[in-house]
Design brief:
Helices cover about 95% and strands about 0% of the residues. The protein is an all-alpha fold.
Length: about 45
């Protein structure tokens, strides 16, 4: 494995981690908003 391949894989891994983080963040926001809606209807 040469330097170009390793740097390219690191770059793709960074993009993958960023997209995964954004996906998890969106999921958490969705869950939190749903919980808040349930709390409002419960109150």
């Amino acid at each position: 494995m040469n330097a170009v391949t390793s740097s390219r894989s690191a770059c793709t891994f960074g993009e993958y981690a960023k997209s995964m983080g954004r996906y998890l963040f969106d999921q958490n926001v969705d869950v939190v908003t749903r919980m808040l809606e349930n709390l409002q209807s419960f109150i």
